[in-house]
Amino acid sequence: MRDTPLARIDNLRVSFHTDAGETAAVRDVSFEIAPGETLAIVGESGSGKSVTSLALMRLVGFDGGQITGGHILFDAGQGPVDLGKLTQNQMRGLRGARIGMIFQEPSTALNPVFTIGFQLTEGLRKHGRLSRAAARSRALELLQEVRLSEPARRLAQYPHELSGGMRQRVMIAMALACEPRLLIADEPTTALDVTTQAEILALIDRLRRDHGTAVLFITHDMGVVAQVADRVVVLKEGEKVEEGPVSQVFSAPAHPYTQRLLAAVPRLGDMRGKPGPEPFALDAEEPPRPVPGQGAELMRVEHLTTRFPVTGGLLRRTVGHVHAVEDVSFTINAGQTLALVGESGCGKSTVGRSLLRLVEPQSGRIILDGQDITALPSADLRRARAQMQMIFQDPYGSLNPVLRLAEQVAEPLRNFTSQTKAQRTDRVTALFDRVGLPRSYLDRYPHELSGGQRQRVAIARALALNPKLIVADEAVSALDVSVQAQVLNLLMELQAELGLSYLFISHDMAVVERVSHHVAVMFAGRIVERGPRAAVLENPQHPYTRDLLRAVPVADPAQRRRISDLSFKPIPSPIHPKDHDPGPSLYRSVSPDHVVLTSDCGY
């Protein structure tokens, strides 16, 4: 198999023209990939992973880049051709048909003015020569294969009507539509929960086995690499520093950079037997200390229900409701972390937004430090929000692109305190020091920072008013493993030092195990299991919790499991008629503070 590569990259060099001159994003990178093989390219942000894939697709020129050296050879069926010498018109015949690509950011890769159905059938009709009806039928099959709920309804929707995870699944369906010979997957599962991730990996693996498709898998998730890859290429600052079989790279990494990457990977089971969250040991002279928390109750949520109206008909009357959150109850102790986990669309983010009343709950009580948040009028709610802050999943979207970072971190101080400008400046400087950002960054803009640095700015802004509770909504899901470990360490250090409480919303079970004191598992708007971290993750009682844990990829090739063996029940639709009564959430006690849902949740 190694003698007949499907694609071969020889001494690739890609440069970008900047104000400071020419910058080489990829330098002298070489590798090859054979039919039916999965090659993973790993490395941190800025290492050149995505630029390499865009060069292979001849798309790097649209981002201002230029292939300034090397060759890109691809066997399209009639022998190897140098893609660098083809015209863009010739490349359009290969893209989608022979080379498919799953882009990292589906919100920008999908066209906002066309329906999902139009975008999904366009390639099928162009490359597959299918009729309109046959293309639509195939599109429905693809959406079912990527486990998108209500596929017929999705075809008529536009990208903005779908969640990030749903848009990613549409992108994957588009890339797989014409069964390409080479599939380039650029961070394809970053925004997806573990069960959907497992199904997508199984789908890609089936395409590889059944059709001999080669897969170029670009990711920072080392668990996924260990699960799917045959070989690994490690990039650092545009250069290849290591390449080899996945088992060899994981068991005996030769380059110090690869060793650091693997040391920063959270592994499910690492926290077994430990009393509380514990920072990663990243170049630390002293062993990390657990974060015990204070134990006193800070927030109590009772029977929280949040629904959204569904309108229809000529007069746009309410014909039903989306039952996003249904009868949810939990407590968060001072100085401790409650992790809320589950699949996309289960209601995790809606719970977080309901706590801050960014969306209005339909019923229930939210009591923060003895004060009922749900009963507060607008003026009092504004003051109460100073005690609750939120760190969003996308720091670039939550930061203002036209304001300097110092102004954005100082904004809460201007709105909620009477501090002078000098006092605000001192406070912002101290916050930058605390989150590990150089003071020279105070006058920078968000686009001048990396993803991890932007997330640190978001954390600094959340800390500005000394809140008691921080809702972290997928705060580290899009970060590289090493940056992720640094940000998680920062959050735990701040918790130990300031007594912060976190509602940590995540789909990464290994990260949840690392940071949480308690865990609540959500499915279809309800909490199906809740309890201390060790009880829920080491002794799961609900079948959904067990399936979630079973789907977590293990960052060890020796423990690789057959993805095709994993199967999951379909997610029930959250949309119900106006008069639908879902009933209360009923639980049984397993052990102290460990409860399991007994009423029907559809799983």
From TrEMBL:
The protein's name: Glutathione import ATP-binding protein GsiA
Matches recorded under SUPFAM superfamilies: P-loop containing nucleoside triphosphate hydrolases (SSF52540)
GO cellular component, one term: plasma membrane
Catalytic activity reported: glutathione(out) + ATP + H2O = glutathione(in) + ADP + phosphate + H(+)
EC number: 7.4.2.10
Region (Disordered): 571-590
InterPro entries membership: AAA+_ATPase, ABC_transp_ATP-bind, ABC_transporter-like_ATP-bd, ABC_transporter-like_CS, Oligopep_ABC_C, P-loop_NTPase
Annotated function: Part of the ABC transporter complex GsiABCD involved in glutathione import. Responsible for energy coupling to the transport system.
Gene3D superfamilies recorded: P-loop containing nucleotide triphosphate hydrolases
Coiled coil feature spans: none
Family in the record: Belongs to the ABC transporter superfamily. Glutathione importer (TC 3.A.1.5.11) family.
Domain ABC transporter: residue ranges: 7-262, 299-549
Broad EC category: translocase
